[in-house]
Amino acid sequence: MSAVHSEFAHRLAQMRPSTIREILKVTAQPEIISFAGGLPAPELFPIAEVQAAADVVLSRDGRAALQYGPSEGVAGLREWIAQEMRARGIQAGADDVLVTNGSQQVLDLVGKVFLNPGDVVLTENPTYLAAIQSFQTLEAKFVPVPTDEEGLIPEALPDLIKTHRPKLLYTIPNFQNPTGITLSASRRAALAKIAAAHSLTVIEDDPYGKLRYRGTEVPPVKHWDEAGCVLYASTFSKTVAPGLRIGWVVAPPEVFSRMLILKQAADLHTSSFDQRVVHAYLTTNNPAEHLEKIRAVYGERLGILQEALGAAMPAGYHWTKPEGGMFLWVTGPESLDAMNLLQRCIAEKVAFVPGRDFFPADGGKNHFRLNFSNSTPERIREGVRRLAALCRAG
Ligand SMILES: Cc1ncc(COP(=O)(O)O)c(C=O)c1O
Known about the structure:
Layout: H1 19-27, E1 33-34, H2 47-65, H3 75-87, E2 97-101, H4 102-114, E3 120-123, H5 129-136, E4 141-144, E5 147-148, E6 151-152, H6 157-164, E7 168-171, H7 185-197, E8 201-205, E9 230-235, E10 246-250, H8 253-267, H9 272-284, H10 287-312, E11 318-319, E12 327-331, H11 338-347, E13 350-351, E14 353-354, E15 367-371, H12 377-393
Parallel strand pairs: 1-13, 3-4, 3-7, 7-8, 8-9
Antiparallel strand pairs: 2-10, 5-6, 9-10, 11-12, 12-15, 14-15
Helix pairs in contact: 2-9, 4-5, 4-8, 10-12
The chain binds pyridoxal-5'-phosphate.
Pyridoxal-5'-phosphate is lined by residues 38, 102-104, 128, 172, 177, 205, 207, 235, 237, 242, 247.
């Protein structure tokens, strides 16, 4: 029997069911070799260290840790993050840092600060699926920015800005999700300059920047942001653990104060306990050492994936060459229907995410995303062997 409800809100009308959520249900079965989700390797989670940090927090600071806290976040953690920001080339103090429920909440809050129904967001095309969903709930429109192997092309922006009057530009400059592409330094500087010239607010979403396995680090777009129009978001999800749900944004005061009001309305504050556990973890261990460990394992897995694809994929398929992150993006021949390939792959117990979900409008039919952080080398080799056989079969 179906329940009776009031009419649902208009904002749900343009939201599509996500293929990835359906796929993730299938990939939960252990016999499936999954290149699908964006999951870190759970065997690398610092479980003992987080447990020790939780003990320290409860014994030293239990009352505050279990109490309501400030919406801005716990002071010590905000200090730590501000210092990390300066190490990444961003001039920020603790007061500029808002701690959030993962960086996903940053997208929700920034969207709510700036977007009215029908407002335009410029994005890379393809872009992060849950960013599309987040802005869709606010009934935004999407306009893609032309991109190539160095990321979005800043020279294309002035015309797009003139034509569409966008409220926001959303970019993932490091090892982009889903393509793995990194925006070059010169383009970052150009983007900051164009944004300033046109008073365009940029959301720089950087969950993967610390996961670099090759090449040299590039400073964030925010590093070149003299006008204060870039909001920089990052997270501990990929460097510590996503289940903790601790992310942050660095924002100028006029945006910060508005996000803070909206955060109060959304959840009052991010878990006092989890924030303190993360802070204790960071200050009683050597997080750089843990990061080195993750980088070594993921870098090896990326190399194995590339080698396996190179050895087995048929002509007509090519893929990106990420220098970090968790994803690689495959483009097949025009005739490829990645949804259909996925169905055949699932029958062979292999999964990936078809490109479709990453395009705000049309596109993606002959693309798919492969995650390499969550599978062992043996499973990567075997998964690619099965995938390539199905691609060859056409
Ligand atoms: C580009 C991008 N932004 C944001 C997020 C959300 O991360 P979290 O909310 O765990 O910090 C992800 C997660 O995969 C992502 O890929």
